[in-house]
């Protein structure tokens, strides 16, 4: 603990967090910037607008990985104050696709129906499939959030604190084989298939993990990256071989490989460490940086540090 600065010390003040997040000294390790971000996230979630503004300032950074995480975090705060910077990010074609994707998804997570028309526009007109599909999901999620179904459906209380791109299917849907069939059925709306995905996550048995892994064969990169994300939440060692396979496949989209690296970082079994060390040298920046952050998380999981948001001294 003594090698960590206390949260309310210099690095814990808003100015300190801003300096770390935005790399004002030009030599802040990315892993520390992530830790600062998660601290800002908890402040933002409590309604601290300044924390949200600081996070949004980071969209000027070159790191695709960092920026997509900024967007994710802004969505998770559920604050209406985060809508503007997210809409700007979605609209900005100069931002990388993964960053714009995460911005659209975050708008879905916030769930305010004022953004429906913007999402409709990008759902219909964006040249990139990953953006169109993300907008499709975000639209459906917002509609669901404002629907009768939300109040009448009996959903499993999630073990995960995240706001997901789709709610799980109701509790009475518990046959893994059926859910697996829905997950992989390209004729079904994407939103329904995502609902099956999150239901399988909540079931969480070995059979459910295997069903989820079958989703890595899907033609949509967005879909495959979400499977990797869910595995990162589940932290089941049974998903490790499938995740390593994804990471090893250099033809796989970087967005999917990145998510696999992060998932391996949160699973943090001993077999994972050499894999991550190898990919911390990957040619693809976003994969390399994901492995770097994942290694930091691995060290955290295997240490006696109690709070991930405390920033180690350099
Ligand atoms: Fe994503
Ligand atoms: Fe991601």
UniProtKB/TrEMBL annotation:
Cofactor(s) listed: Fe(2+)
Alphabetical list of InterPro entries matching this protein: ARM-like, ARM-type_fold, Armadillo, Deoxyhypusine_hydroxylase, PBS_lyase_HEAT
EC nos: 1.14.99.29
Gene Ontology CC entries for this record: cytoplasm; nucleus
GO molecular function: deoxyhypusine monooxygenase activity; metal ion binding
BP terms from Gene Ontology: microtubule cytoskeleton organization
Binding site for Fe cation 2: 225-226, 258-259
Keywords recorded for this protein, A-Z: Cytoplasm, Hypusine biosynthesis, Iron, Metal-binding, Monooxygenase, Nucleus, Oxidoreductase, Repeat
Entries under SMART domains matching the protein: EZ_HEAT
Cofactor descriptive note: Binds 2 Fe(2+) ions per subunit.
Family named by the database record: Belongs to the deoxyhypusine hydroxylase family.
Protein's name according to its UniProt entry: Deoxyhypusine hydroxylase
């Amino acid at each position: 603990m003594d090698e960590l600065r206390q949260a309310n010390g210099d690095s814990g003040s808003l100015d300190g967090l801003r300096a770390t997040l935005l790399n004002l000294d030009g030599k802040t390790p990315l892993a520390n910037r992530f830790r600062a971000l998660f601290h800002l996230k908890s402040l933002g979630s409590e309604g601290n607008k300044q924390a949200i503004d600081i996070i949004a300032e980071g969209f000027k950074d070159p790191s695709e990985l960092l920026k997509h995480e900024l967007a994710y975090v802004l969505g998770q705060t559920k604050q209406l104050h985060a809508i503007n910077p997210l809409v700007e990010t979605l609209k900005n074609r100069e931002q990388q696709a993964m960053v714009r994707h995460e911005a659209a998804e975050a708008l879905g997570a916030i769930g305010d129906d004022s953004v429906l028309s913007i999402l409709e526009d990008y759902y219909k007109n964006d040249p990139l499939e990953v953006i169109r599909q993300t907008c499709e999901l975000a639209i459906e999620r917002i509609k669901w959030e404002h629907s009768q179904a939300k109040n009448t459906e009996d959903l499993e209380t999630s073990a995960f604190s995240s706001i997901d791109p789709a709610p799980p299917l109701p509790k009475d849907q518990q046959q893994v084989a059926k859910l697996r069939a829905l997950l992989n059925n390209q004729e079904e709306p994407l939103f329904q298939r995502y609902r099956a995905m999150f239901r399988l996550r909540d079931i969480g048995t070995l059979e459910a993990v295997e069903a989820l892994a079958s989703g890595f064969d899907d033609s949509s990169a967005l879909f495959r990256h979400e499977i990797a994300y869910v595995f990162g939440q589940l932290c089941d060692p049974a998903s490790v071989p499938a995740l390593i396979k994804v990471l090893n496949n250099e033809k796989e989209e970087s967005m999917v490989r990145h998510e696999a690296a992060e998932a391996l970082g949160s699973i943090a079994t001993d077999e994972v460490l050499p894999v991550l060390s190898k990919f911390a040298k990957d040619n693809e920046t976003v994969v390399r940086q994901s492995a770097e952050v994942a290694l930091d998380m691995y060290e955290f999981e295997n240490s006696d540090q109690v709070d991930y948001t405390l920033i180690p001294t350099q």
